[in-house]
Specification:
Layout: H1 15-36, H2 39-46, H3 50-56, H4 60-71, H5 85-102, H6 105-118, H7 120-147, H8 157-174, H9 181-196
Helix pairs in contact: 1-2, 1-4, 1-6, 4-6, 4-7, 5-7, 5-9, 6-7, 7-8, 8-9
Length: about 200
Amino acid sequence: MSEAKVTRRGRPRDEKAREAILAAATDLLLASGLDSASMDEVAERAGVSKATIYRWWSTKEALALDALYRVWDTSGPAPRDTGSLRGDLLALIRPWIRRVRERPYGRVIAALITEAQTDPAFAEQYRGRFLEPRRERARPIIARAIERGELPPATNVELALDLLYGPLYHRLLQGHAPLTHRYVSELVDIVIAGLQT
């Protein structure tokens, strides 16, 4: 009996086209925001058809999320163990601060959060692709601090992450004050002091 042939449906992804689409989407999102950017503009800038984009992303929001994920990829090496909770948290957050100060990411993230409030399916994608990977990188830092005796054994790790990231996103989204290295240092000191009491 001969082996049955496996027929794959659709064309395989063209990584060059995919990268061009993500790069174009990133540029347009940062230049004009989610509401103003259109799939037509992305297609024109990337040199692909709109059908090509819709083959991979069903909505503009899904494309924006992937574009943001590409720029803020967390698959690289985890931040180094500096030997102290303060050093570890600064090593985790300072690169994030440098990134958000490079270009206007705040309004893109704000638009994605707004979409997540009205679309449960997108909210799940947002949490899985953007929010959770950042929290996952921070959990071992809190665990190491507990092992070293810098934090009490009963420390609520998820609450600790909320205390850390909440003020950063508040300042990023509200834009009422700058995200500076001094601010990050003071925030880390306050969070640690709060967790230790």
